[in-house]
Amino acid sequence: MYEELLKNTALADERFVVMTAENRALVRNLPAVLGKRFIDTGITEQTMIGAAAGLALRGRIPVVHALSAFLSMRAFEFIRTDAGIANLPVKLSSFIPGFLSDGNGPTHQAIEDVSIMRGIPNMQVFAPADESDLVTMLPKIWNTPNPAYVRICTRPAKYQHDTNFEIGKAEIISEGTDVTILVYGFMFEQALITAEILREQGKSVGLINMRSLKPVDEKAIIKAAQQSDLIVTIEDHFLTGGLYSIVAETLLKNRMTADVLPIALNEKWFKPARLNEVLAYEGFTGKQMAEKILEVAVSYQL
Known about the structure:
Blueprint: H1 2-12, E1 16-20, H2 30-34, E2 38-40, H3 45-57, E3 61-67, H4 68-74, H5 76-84, E4 91-95, H6 113-118, E5 124-126, H7 131-142, E6 148-151, E7 171-174, E8 179-183, H8 188-200, E9 205-209, E10 212-214, H9 218-227, E11 230-238, H10 243-253, E12 260-265, H11 275-282, H12 286-299
């Protein structure tokens, strides 16, 4: 779905250029279709970003591809300086972010990328829940004049998403008065399970697919904090700088307080394994998260 969308977008608009740093997993069939508008720079993420910025200065819209860890960290200075400062429409497709790098060790784990990317002025940051959500969101992301970082998730959809995506708006799956879960990206799949288990335990549960992390839907966060006894943030990211930090910043900005339970990686990388094994070992399965939330609800007397 991703490759087909990108192909059709590029064929319809000659401004689009597809680039990769020798990571063709998402775009294997595009070289033959796009010809000179497909550029593989080799394992040179920094060079790719510099070239993409140059193309953007000349009216092109580069959609660039690399492993999340190398795109967000190895090429960071180039993204910040070449794309961020100049506010150029360089679109970053970040492959296997978070737990999706499952069997890879810490060097290949992008679990600080949201923090890094949202710190760049002008940079927009997005995290679709699955492939259906991804292709719903990308047309508007690719048509903004800003640089954008997208945590790519091509997992099959377990939920029929709202197709009326707006930048800066979250997708409200449900509203609840006991617990509201805020989540983004791949972890949405497990959050659905968590929410269902909590409902079976008699809890009124809200679930929000954040989608857009920068700009973020502050109104959705504030409303959730006002109407729920407990806010839960779920993310396959370090505790620092991700959704938990975003929620804290939003509440402080609006002179609010709330009971917030973060479920994230606290000062640690995850143990490499098959994806399901990673989730179970780190405590991120839907069932494990529901148990953690119920335990906290009891201790808080919620």
